[in-house]
Each structure stands twice: as structure tokens, then as C-alpha cells.
Amino acid sequence: MLQTSTHHHFPPQLLPRHPLCLRISLIISAHRRPLLRHQSYTHIRLRVSSCTKSSSKNTVAELVKAVDGQKANDQQQQQVKRPYPFHEIEPKWQHYWEENKTFRTPDEIDTSKPKFYVLDMFPYPSGAGLHVGHPLGYTATDILARFKRMQGFNVLHPMGWDAFGLPAEQYAIETGTHPKITTLRNISRFRSQLKSLGFSYDWDREISTTEPDYYKWTQWIFLQLMKRGLAYQAEVPVNWCPALGTVLANEEVVDGVSERGGHPVIRKPMRQWMLRITAYADRLLEDLDDLDWPESIKEMQRNWIGRSEGAELDFVVINGNGQEEEKRITVYTTRPDTIFGATYLVLAPEHPILSSVLSEAQSKHVEEYRELAIRKSDLERTELQKEKTGVFTGCYARNPANGQAIPIWVADYVLGSYGTGAIMAVPAHDTRDYEFAVKYSIPISWVVKPDDGDGGNFERPYSGEGTMINASSSESGLDINGLPSKDAASRVIQWLEKSGNGKQKVNYKLRDWLFARQRYWGEPIPVIFLDDTGEGIPVSETELPLTLPELDDFTPTGTGEPPLSKADSWVITKDPLSGKAARRETNTMPQWAGSCWYYLRFMDPKNSSALVDKAKEQYWSPVDVYVGGAEHAVLHLLYARFWHKVLYDIGVVSTKEPFKCVINQGIILGEVQYTACKDDKGNLISADSVAELAEYNQEKIPEEKVMKSGDFFVLKDNPNVRLIARAHKMSKSRGNVINPDDVVLEYGADSLRLYEMFMGPLRDSKTWNTSGIEGVHRFLARSWRLIVGSPSPAGSYPDGTSTVDEKPSIEQLRSLHRCIDKVTEEIEGTRFNTGISAMMEFINAAYKWDKLPRSIIEAFVLLLSPYAPHMAEELWSRLGHSNSLAYEPFPKADAAYLKESTVVLPVQINGKTRGTIQVEETCTEEEAFRLASLDTKLSKFLDGKSIRKRIYVQGKILNIVIDAQKKVKVAQ
């Protein structure tokens, strides 16, 4: 039976008999939002349902005819009801822009003009297409691009596709469809959706990371990294899923199992390509200060880089007889002043020295613990709230400060990838260490006294600075008692270096970038390995691009070898210099690779001899405004900055940073959903009486059964039942995704653009409300009717406009220039919602005018054009212009019309103030007297009186002297 949900399907048993039924489904699906409102479709749905019992082709044909007829009838009704003909305007101007390449940025431009490079974080083209959250940032950048063009800037506003990646490969494995086919199909859908929204992209510069002409230069950058020792191979622990036969990224592992399939995942060492991003840690950190980025993003990057100053120190391992061995455990600490408080060491389960510091008695327990630890993700292991676990190794090390033997433990809250993979545990002054020590009865020694405490009553760990206590040893010669923490730290470092037990050290949380994936759908790594020696040799730059071979089988090998290893004829090769047998690298680059530098390729997308032309790069760099989601605040932006700095060092780019200004648009949440709590008996209960929501069943409540009561939502039928009202991020699983195609079909692209900007500040998260779009839709319709006129009963509009070629009044000029001033200021500040409000105020004022001067309306249309470009182009054309308004000068506010030019003028009768009138500053005496005569309060003093004289000081006072003896009617 045909359903009325987001997708409409016929029963499987019907489709083989009646292929035309698919057409019915597609018709109704494509027009579902406007069509399914009408009861006239009920009989069609019922007939489709009954059709399951029939195999008559005629019956199906009749149904198709009925749907087509209803569709035509409905469209005719919609056309009559439409507030303005957006369904005609928008396709017309989209076709015009495409045909005339209106927004193409020429390769050769006048570089004496200022430039504006505005860029969206280019999307991954998924099969789901766009939802209404995507156009939020795209609309903002489009407004900026259109605005800057009209201000005389050369504007670069491109779009492309970050199209390699796991989703396409997984779909290929499931369906046997080549990832390239899926990717091209998805790109086509995304492109058509973006074009339907009227974005002014230069489509001649469109790029995709999957095209060999593009990834040739991604491979070229990799070779430059190799030349400089920034790309290398190392054996590192990875997430290995035996069942899937592949390595998983951290985000693909949840609670120790694969997100896909729920299979156990273990940590195992594998040889991987790494990029030495740590070599640029200081520059990545320092250069953040000069960027016009949100402070929150800069702070996230600082924390991710995690620069800290401290010391590395060595603890000598001692055997069961208390004798020192040659083995040393090196730890890193930011608090060398607390060395006397170190009462145990902790090794990460993956620490390479662990196996050699196990006692026979503890060996089995440690191995069992290691097996459990390697099944956990780094996030699980370091979660602050989780209970700390560990196992004693049975061995000890000597604290170099006091000579004491302290136990060596293994615990998973220490990571092998951070620092040295080992810590000195100071339980008195670290919360994690304290919890661990209490649990396992390890001694606790306080060595820092808070400056505001007595130091004798410690009940909990103190992690702050203070004065050192219990911190001296005659055996080692180190005495820091009584010193402030910072001074003590410096003294300890001096002692470590002098005694050979350690050194000063700057450390980073930042790890080198794991750059290999056991995938097919990614950029091939341009390296071959000689069969006889295993030596890795870079592919010659002249042989790039190294293209992906065609494969029919994309499934994992199950051995850890990537899918590319199945392409024998591609893998087996020879070293062109020596002629020796060799094999190609079968790992591919991660999806991040292509998105690290795409902003450069947009400057010069067709260049076959260089990544980017130097002159073009020098003109367009850096990106002036870069807009995208906050989820890319760290990794993408950090990786792109790293690659850019490498390219800067080798002379490819002229700027130290790629993005001058970064803006994170907020998230558009799905429409508010209402749920009620139910008790064990199924009765609805008020949400305010529920302590833990998770303990109760919940039932969705339709919006029509809900009403607002104060600050809360309740059931209409039972206001005592308070509901849970919550908006969630849009997702298919929640069923709250709004397709922009549906919105455009019903309201038009300009309305969608305007609504997304009007919902609130660009950077804030907002809740979608379909009924909310009606407001901006009415504004556009009012603007249309004001300028064009009202429609005929048949729904058609007159040609041209209702403007007149007359000089505007002071009032009209003032209203216009205030609007120009506000809209300009708000676009420049990316406060688009308040810019729309200013235009709404202008239209409200214009409806009160008797006539619409053409010059006033033309200026308003230009103001409107960045926001609602389709309507603006149509109005501009109707105003008598033959060319697009895309490059017309943006109106400039005249300061003379922005001043508040009215004053409150006191009016005296025979020297006594009787009232006030509001007049222009330049008001004449005659005009002031006329206004006073018309004022209700003042006219009673003047009516019938003889005026002896008038005393007028412009902008200050009007004094009317009347003759009380003579009465004559005052002329009105």
C-alpha cells in the first residue's frame, strides 16, 4: 500500500507485475509535500492498494493517468495560490547565469583591483544528498561573494568535492557497485541541488579529489614530504578488526567493538606511513595568535598540540636483590618539583620495556591485563570518570631523588603514544594517581604544601603550586625544601642534568599523523618497494599521477593486506632505474589528504605543469573567509595548516597561513519533537515528576496535541502532563531530515535562503520550523506586489513595475539610506538576520507611500540581491535593465540622510508654552505655523484669533502673539 511517510513504496509483490507502479511512486514522492495535503489523492492511494490483487495493465495505466491528471490540476491550483511566481523566476535566472557564465572568475584578471576569496569547506557527496542544514554556510558565503562583486572586488567563490573515503567503499562492498560510479552519481545530485539554490559558484573551477588530474598533485606533495624526511614508515599500534580484516579509525570503534557489525577490535602494531607534523608543532602553535579565527577554535588547536615544559628523567630498574640493572625507564613530567613524591611508576600496556621488567610470578597476570587493554580505544582508557585498573609487574625502580625502591605497575590509563609511555606517579598531587594508589594501597607522600594551608592535614590530592616539604636527600644531594614550586622545578632540572639523571624537555600531546589506510578508494601512495631489500623508493614525479587500478572485488583481504594487493598486474612492477623487481605500496592515503590543499587548486584548477601558478597564488592567497562546521576545528584545519607551512618552506605558497578568517556556522536542528513519559502501566505522567528520564518509556506526541503553558509544553487534553520538548540534530534514523528540494518546490529557493539567514545569528545553532519560513516568504511576496503590482484573478502579473520616474522625497531618501547603511554594515559583520530586518522595515515604510520613485526601488533591489538573487534579477530586468545586476555597484549610504533631522519645537502663545510639534531642522516659519495650526491641542488657542506677529527661531521655538480683542478665523 502506498505510504505517506518520507518515502513512498509499493509492496514488493506489486512491482514485478506492474513496472508502471514505480512511476506512480516516483511522481507522488517527487511532489509529496504539496500533493499529499489534498484529499483528492486518497482515492488514488486506495486504488493502488487494491491493485495488488489485480494484474491488469489497463488498471495500472489508469492509475498513472489519474496521478498525472491530479498532478497537473494541483499545479494549476498552486500557481493561482502562489504569492509570487518563484517557480518561473528561479529556473529562468539559473539558466541565464549558467548560459552566460555570470559568475566565472577569468584566469586573467585585473590584479590592480582588490580580491576576495570566499570558500566553503567542500562537502563529501553522500548518497543522501543535502538537507536544510547544509545551505546555511553556503548561503552565507554566497551573500558575501555577491556583495563583494558589487563592491568592485575580484571574487573567487568555487565549489568541489571531497569524494574519496570509506562510505563509498562500504557501499561498493555491499552492492558490487564501483565507488567511482557511486561517487559520480552523488556528485551529480549535490551539484543539481546547489544550483537549484542559486549559489554564485564558478562551476568552471569545480574539482574532485578523486580525479587523477587533481590527486596527481596530492601525490606530488607527498613526495616533497618524503624528500624532507616528513613522511616515513613506522610500526605503530592500530585498531585491527580480525572479523572485518581491516584497520579501523578511532571513530569506527565503540566500546572495543567495530561500529559496523559489532566485531571485537584489538590494538596491534602494524607498519604504517606517518607524517611528521610534530616537526611543525611550535609554528602551528605560535602562528595561531595572528589569525582572525574564533578563540574557541584556536584554543582547541592549542590543546590538541598540547605544548608543555618539563623534564625527562630516568628511573633505573633494580632486580630482586636490590641491585641496579642496565635498564632505565624514562618518564616525562611537567612537575619535576614533585619528584620526592613519586611512590610508583606506571607503564602503558604497550610499552616496549614491559616484557623485560616482569617477575615470573606476575607474568601471567600482566599478559592477561595487556590482552584486555589492547581491546580498548584511547578515549576509553583515558576517560577521567572510569575506575582505574592495573597490575603490579613484580619489579621495582629506584627514585633518583631519594634512592627509594618504588614499584613498577602497568595500567591502561597511561598511553604508549603520549610522552614516553611511562609516568612517575605522585598520588599526593595528582587525582588519577591518588585514586589508583588508594585502590591498591600504594604509599602516598605529600611534598607540596599549599601557601594558604598548614600542610599537616591532607585529605585529598593537591595539584596546585605551593611550598616544598619533605623534599631533601643527603644521599642524592638534592634539597628543595622550603622553595616555591617553580623555583624547585628549576633546581630539580639543574640537578638532573648535572647528575646525568635527566634533562629539561618540551613535550607535545600532538602525535605524528597516521597517513595510511587499508582501503581501495583513496589516493595511491607513490612508492615502490624493492623485492630483494624492501627499500622504499619514491615514484618519479614525471610518472604522476599514479592512478588506481580497476577492481571488481573491494572486500578486505582478511590478512591485513589492503584490497589493492589483489591487483597483481598493478602491484608487480620494476624499479625504472635499477630494473630490479619491486611491488607498489598497496595502502592508500586517508580522506584528509585531498582536503588539505584544495583551496590552492581552486586558484588554478587546470594547470597541468604546476600545483598552482605562483602569480595566481600570490594574488589570491590567503583565503579571506573560510566557512564550515565546528567538527573540523582541529584535524582538518590543523592538517591543512601543516601542509601549507611545508609548501611555504619549499616556495610553493607565499603566505604562512592558508585561511585568514574562519567562521563556524551553527547547526540547524530538526523540528522540535514532543514526547511524554509513561509509567509501568502505560499511563502518561508529567515530565517534571520524573527523576531519571531513561527509566521511563517515552511516547511521541503529535504537534497538534500540544500547547504551550508558560515556559513549558503540555498536553492539550491534560495540561497537567508536562512534555519533553527537544530538537535533535537532523538524521535519517530520527526521521527529522528536511530535504531542501521540498522547501524549494513549495516556497522557492529565495525563501529558503532568506529563512536560513533570518533564523538567527550565523554562528548559533538554530531549530528548524517549517511554519517559520512563511514569514520571509510573505516578505518576498509583499516586495514583489509592491514593485510589480497585484495579480489578475487568473494569477498573472502585469509586465514591468509600478514605479514612477519622479524625484524622491526627503522621507523616501532617508528611509532608503538608513536601509542601505544597515544592510551594508550587517553583511560586513555577517549579521545577516538583522540585515533582513532592515529590508523588512523599508518595505513596511514603502507601502505607505503614494508613489514609488524608480531610483529608490532600484537601489532597494540591489540591496536585496545578495539575499534573494532570483527575485532581484527579475525585478531588475522589469525595471528596464538588459544585463544581470551581479556586477552593478552596491548602493552606498549618504550620511546626509542618516542624521536624525527632526526636532521637537516648543510652541508658545503670547509667551506661554502651550504644546510642541515635531518639525524638520530646516523647517520654515510658514511650515511651522501651519503644523501648529493643525495640531489638536494648539489649534484651540489659535482658532478665530487675530495674529499680531510670529517670533520664530529655527529649530528652537515658535512664539505666536495674538490679539485677544479681535477674532478672525485662522486660515488652514
From TrEMBL:
Q: What is its EC number?
A: 6.1.1.4
User: Which positions fall inside the Methionyl/Valyl/Leucyl/Isoleucyl-tRNA synthetase anticodon-binding domain?
Assistant: 813-920
Q: Which Gene3D superfamilies does the record associate with it? A: HUPs (3.40.50.620), Isoleucyl-tRNA Synthetase, Domain 1 (1.10.730.10), Valyl/Leucyl/Isoleucyl-tRNA synthetase, editing domain (3.90.740.10)
Q: Where is the Methionyl/Leucyl tRNA synthetase domain?
A: 121-253
Q: What class of enzyme is it?
A: ligase
> A single Pfam family, by name?
tRNA-synt_1_2
Q: Does the keyword Zinc-finger apply?
A: no
According to UniProt, the reaction catalysed is: tRNA(Leu) + L-leucine + ATP = L-leucyl-tRNA(Leu) + AMP + diphosphate
Q: Which UniProt keywords apply?
A: Aminoacyl-tRNA synthetase, ATP-binding, Ligase, Nucleotide-binding, Protein biosynthesis
What do the Gene Ontology cellular component annotations say? cytosol; mitochondrion
- A GO MF label: aminoacyl-tRNA deacylase activity
Query: Which InterPro entries does the record match to this protein?
Result: aa-tRNA-synth_I_CS, aa-tRNA-synth_Ia, Leu-tRNA-ligase, Leu_tRNA-synth_edit, M/V/L/I-tRNA-synth_anticd-bd, Methionyl/Leucyl_tRNA_Synth, Rossmann-like_a/b/a_fold, tRNAsynth_Ia_anticodon-bd
Q: Which residues form the Aminoacyl-tRNA synthetase class Ia domain?
A: 509-691, 728-757
Q: Which GO terms describe its biological process?
A: leucyl-tRNA aminoacylation; post-embryonic development; reproductive structure development
Instruction: Fetch the PANTHER family from UniProt.
Output: LEUCINE--TRNA LIGASE, MITOCHONDRIAL, LEUCYL-TRNA SYNTHETASE
Quote the protein name from its UniProt record.
leucine--tRNA ligase
Lineage of the species this protein comes from: Eukaryota, Viridiplantae, Streptophyta, Embryophyta, Tracheophyta
